[in-house]
Amino acid sequence: MKILHTTLLAAAATVLLSACAGNAPAPSTPGAQAAAGQPARPAGGHGLDAFLGSYDTNRDGAVTRAEFDAVRVQRFRAGDKNGDGVLSEDEYVAEFEGRLKRQYFDEGRQPDKAYENSIKQAHVRFGIVNRARDGKFTAAEDAAIADKTFKSLDTNNDGSVSKADPQRPPQARGNDS
Asked: Average pLDDT, stretch 57-64?
């Protein structure tokens, strides 16, 4: 009986590990383009390259509004662990931290000072995105930020963001309303 139990446990572990390995995204390396269908990378960052890496899910070099919105909705839903339709600060930061951990793992890195600073910044970001200052980041707040963000990056107004969009200096983007 003990041998059967051990054999079943080993078989279950093998199946689980095989499934995880089969679904794992390819490691993201600087300058490498991920295969179509792979999760968007990186976890965060600033600038056009980070935006494209985060939201260009089909890896065609452009982010459509549909791609952008789909990733944002997926991240919001993934963060809403208690299913109440809003993100608490803990849920918001935990969702980001999960993506950051995956990025570090894919790059073969261990959490470092930059990792710690990114988590601290996520707490600060929550205070900014939670416009109502009620500790509940809503889908409506997220949609308003998404709309402003996308419009500010789609500078040629073609409905997608790519390297063809001339980027304005950060000072000019900060004055968008």
From this structure: 95
